[in-house]
Write a structure and sequence with these properties.
388 residues; alpha+beta; Nuclear Transport Factor 2, Chain: A; Jelly Rolls; 2 domains; nine-stranded antiparallel β-sheet; six-stranded mixed β-sheet; 4 helices; 19% helix; elongated
Length: 388
């Protein structure tokens, strides 16, 4: 065996160093290319999410492959065309999409698998969905960039949560020192940031001096930005004119608001009536029939597509829960309402006295609304406690 000379050993060492540098450079280039591809896939996903929550069908269509197979967590399957139609129709309105974690892998060039978790808020015909999902998404790169060609999701199981506070339902609420409902664990104030305009004019509702003023025109509502289920609500209200009309809607489903114009009210929900005592005389003097089908002391009744079995006594046709005693004060005095809405049952206290309500409400979740109905009204000390 021939020995290497000194110069041969030097050349071999230099060659090895060059090979090592080239290998490092290639590895670095591959890492950079992989990072760039991952960033491109996530950017395409971000564009899809923005278009989906913003209702931009053109932009959404650009991120979806023509052969898309979209499998919902419910088991329903959509194509590109049917998914775009679902979004366009408003039957599924994606109002929030928050990625919680995303991992991108490349099983073969031009194909990316994105798996992770996301929180979605979707308004559907069956009611609101606010949940965390696990998903697997398939992306394919073509001349138009990365496009989604496959989607499969499953709702993440909710871990058991112990109630943060004890709640009893056999005693009426204890008023606080200011005359409002007791403020303890879990209670919070409701303010402008909790509500959104539906079909009233911008000037119909004004938050000022720690309260809320409503002009009464046009007829319509503001609603909470998110749906609610089990809750306690406390508020003070007063009418500023004789015979004023207003109300609180509980559990108004998303579809109750689709397409409603100024002058219209939601087509669903459980209404807690707010009427001034002068309303009956005003109603009967206008030429309408006898005002015996409503009261002015706190009726509770279902609206439109919603259902409820009212507590007795009831209105003549049995649709409304009439108050069992009269405790409401006339304009311009302040009144205090406390409402307990839990597991499909609604109960109303007027100025500290339980008076009316109903059970087996369907649906038993939805938006909370305040009503503008033709006369100026004021609210204050709006407080809520959401329950498990």
């Amino acid at each position: 065996m021939r020995r290497r000379t000194g110069w041969g050993r030097v050349r071999a060492m230099r060659l090895g160093a060059v090979v090592g540098i080239v290998a490092v450079a290639l590895a670095s280039a591959a890492t950079t290319r992989g990072a760039d591809e991952e960033a491109a896939v996530l950017a395409a996903d971000d564009a899809r999410i923005k278009a989906l929550t913003g209702g931009d069908l053109a932009a959404l269509g650009e991120r979806l492959a023509d052969d898309l197979r979209y499998v919902h967590s419910t088991g329903g399957v959509d194509t590109k065309a049917s998914f775009l139609e679902l979004v366009r129709s408003g039957k599924s309105r994606y109002t929030r999409y928050e990625p919680l974690d995303r991992v991108v892998r490349f099983p073969t060039p031009g194909i990316a698998l994105d798996s992770g978790r996301a929180r979605l808020v979707v308004e559907t015909a069956d009611g609101p969905v606010d949940a965390e999902f696990h998903y697997l998404a398939g992306w394919r790169h073509d001349a138009g960039g990365w496009k989604l060609f496959a989607w499969q999701s499953a709702r993440a199981p909710k871990p058991p949560v112990a109630p943060a506070f004890a709640v009893t339902f056999d005693e009426p609420p204890v008023p606080g020192a200011d005359g409002g409902a007791a403020i303890g664990t879990g209670w919070r104030d409701l303010g402008a940031d909790d509500f959104e305009r539906v079909n009233c004019a911008p000037e119909t509702w004004t938050w000022k001096d720690g309260g809320l003023h409503c002009t009464g025109t046009p007829v319509g509502v503001i609603r909470t930005k998110r749906s609610l289920q089990n809750l306690e609500l406390a508020l003070d209200w007063r009418h500023l004119t004789d015979g004023g009309n207003s109300g609180v809607f509980l559990w108004a489903p998303p579809e109750a608001f689709f397409g409603i114009e100024p002058g219209q009210l939601p087509r669903g929900g459980i209404e807690v009536q707010i009427l001034d005592h002068g309303f009956r005389a005003k109603y009967e003097s206008s030429g309408n029939r006898k005002g015996d089908w409503f009261s002015t002391d706190g009726d509770v009744f279902p609206v439109g597509t919603s259902k409820m079995i009212p507590f007795p006594p009831t209105s003549p046709n049995g649709s409304r829960s009439f108050p069992k005693a009269a405790h409401s004060r006339g304009s311009p005095a302040w009144n205090h309402y406390y409402v307990r809405a839990v597991e499909g049952e609604v109960r109303l206290w007027v100025n500290g006295h339980e008076v009316s309500g109903g059970t087996r409400c369907v649906p038993a979740s939805g938006h909370l609304c305040l009503e503008s109905e033709g006369a100026p009204v004021e609210f204050r000390r709006l407080r809520i406690r959401e329950l498990p």
